[in-house]
Amino acid sequence: MNETTPLPPHKIIGVAVIWNDKRQILIDRRPPTGVMGGLWEFPGGKIEPGETIFDCIKREIYEELGIVIEVGEHLITIDHTYTHLRVTLTVHNCCHITGIPQPIECDEFRWVSLDELEQFAFPKANVQIIEALRLQHRKINEG
Fold first, then answer.
1. Which annotated residues bind 8-oxo-dGTP (predicted)?
2. Cα separation of 46 and 44, whole Å?
3. Domain with 68 in it: what CATH number?
4. Which positions make up the binding site for Mg(2+)?
5. Is the pLDDT of residue 10 over 60?
6. Is 5 inside a domain boundary?
């Protein structure tokens, strides 16, 4: 008899790479309990039925950090399967508009430079976001 392994659940996630006027990126740390606890991430969350990716990102950032952002250009879309979950991350560059970030749904947050990102432990799927940011940065600097 041929048994099939059940597929892990699939979540579509809107992710924000939030830049401030000092060219720093906002990252937050997941609570220590739960899946991937204690790892750093680019903030975002699950898209709700009928919601656009832009609306999802704006809503999630307001709910998680209490700030208003402008969702900008698409950076990368990543499909990644962990043992327990399949995720599709739709990542956009965003600008911080108003508000002071608060750790509402995370343990802490930090504004960091692109070069500092390698000092933080991220979930595997987020590594591709960092690579895309570095590639984007090189293209901008090459003019």
1. 30, 41-44, 126
2. 7
3. 3.90.79.10
4. 44, 64
5. yes
6. no
